[in-house]
Amino acid sequence: MDFTKELDWRGLISDETPGIRDIVSSEKITGYIGFDPTSKSLHIGNLLPIMNLVRLQKYGHKPLAVVGGGTGLIGDPSGKSSERNILSKESIQENLDSIKSQLEKFLDFSESIKNPAVILNNAEWLEKINYLDFLRDTGKHFTINYMMKKESVKSRLSRDTGISYTEFSYMTLQAYDYLYLYENYNCILQMGGSDQLGNIIAGVDLINKKNPGNSSPLAHGIVFPLITSNSGEKFGKTAGSAPTLDPKETSPYKLYQFFINTTDEDVINYIKYFTDLGEANINDIYNESLNNPKSRIAQKKLADIIVETVHGKDGLSDALRITDYFFKEEYNELSISDLEDLMESYPSSELSIKLLNSEISIGKLLVENNVFKSMGEMRRMSSQGALYINGERVTEITNNFNDSHLIQGKIMIIKKGSKEFFILKFS
Predict the structure, then answer these.
(1) Is the domain of 35 the same as that of 161?
(2) Are residues 169 and 54 in the same domain?
């Protein structure tokens, strides 16, 4: 098996330029993917491009991760309905440093191997460009007609907000990135999501135009499909904030819960996309899931692998421990830090501890903080025995809120029915 064949069985090629399969099966190449530096944290939506760089490296090819310190100052219009906020150079640099540490958990950068991964900041070359030289040497290869046909431009032109010249020019800068990497790193493959097809082809065309007279293309592109759930929701989009790949920003528990809650319909595909498990291993997990669906073996395997990669063995142990105690309702076994991690994954609020002295009833407290829509709803659930506070069933809602309702004097965990949780923190 080679790189493109593996992407095929994992369902990860949406489009490709002709000839790339023959090249990767017969020689070792250099390929790159760009990453947006507008945040300190890569998010779970970045898992797919990261894993495809991992696969590229696995087959002996050299992966380049290009972080857009230069293009990030401009903003890519692809998939965006409005202009991005432009960040300062200082903010971009802070984000770059953080992103590098996250990528190092997936890719091998050690010089002891033949094809170490490399992280590059495109500001290194874009900031050196003379504007007149760029227009003369690069801009002349782009016609307005060509650029207007790209989906990222067409979709914005149809809106009242339009598109600025700044973002309109983004395509030429990304194409120049590819040209620079081709000339300086012998890079002949750019990969990205399907929304990047226009930008990637622009780079391929620029390289070929700058090097005329060749019978076959000098550069290539592969784009991945848009990953959606069985319900049609874009992967990584949640009701709250999406988990990130930054251990400082997203706790092991929150990341674990995101993947452990993957639906049965999506989980095998997600294992194909986001892990490096082989086809035979995945088939075994699939068959075991069919034979024993309640075991959720596939979800556990998916969550275990990703959390251990991002947070290490200790992080995975913490996630499993919190999960175990939480669902056994053994809340007193959890530390304040553990309980605060839980707040990332459930509806939660922070309130003043002074409420202890206000003689407010437990019923009024929970209604006023949107745990229940009304006193009527609360009375109905409590009378049905479906209201729990810190694991204890509550049937009397007129009692005043007091210390006995708090774990370690700070946290209240409310359960409605069998699955709906709310967490209140008092400080």
Answers:
(1) yes
(2) yes
302 Cβ neighbours under 8 A, 6+ residues apart: 259, 260, 262, 267, 270, 271, 274, 275
Question: Is residue 242 a part of any domain in this protein?
Answer: no
Number of structural domains the chain divides into: 3
Instruction: Report the Cα–Cα distance between both ends of the chain, in Å, rounded.
Output: 57
Same domain, 137 and 18: yes
The residues, ordered by sequence, that sit 6+ positions from 378 with a Cβ below 8 Å of its Cβ are 363, 366, 367, 372, 387, 397
**427 residues of the chain, pLDDT tens digit each:** 899 999 999 999 999 999 999 999 999 999 999 998 878 889 898 999 999 999 999 999 999 999 988 887 765 545 444 444 567 778 888 888 889 899 999 999 999 999 999 999 998 999 999 999 999 999 999 888 888 877 767 777 777 677 888 778 888 999 999 999 999 999 999 999 998 898 899 999 999 999 988 878 999 999 999 888 777 777 875 544 678 999 989 999 999 999 999 999 999 999 999 999 999 999 999 999 999 988 999 999 999 999 999 999 999 999 999 999 998 999 999 999 999 888 888 899 999 999 988 889 999 999 999 999 999 998 998 999 999 999 999 988 888 999 999 999 999 999 998 889 999 999 9
Beta strand 187-193 pairing with 220-224: parallel
Strand partners, 350: 425
Residues 335 and 316 in one domain: yes
Domain that holds residue 73: 3-224
Structure pTM? 0.86
Residue 36 C-alpha from the chain's centroid: 12
Dihedral sign from CA coordinates of 235, 268, 99, 69: negative
Q: Are residues 209 and 278 in the same domain?
A: no
**Residue 137 is part of a domain; what is its CATH number?**
3.40.50.620
Does 276 share its domain with 380? no
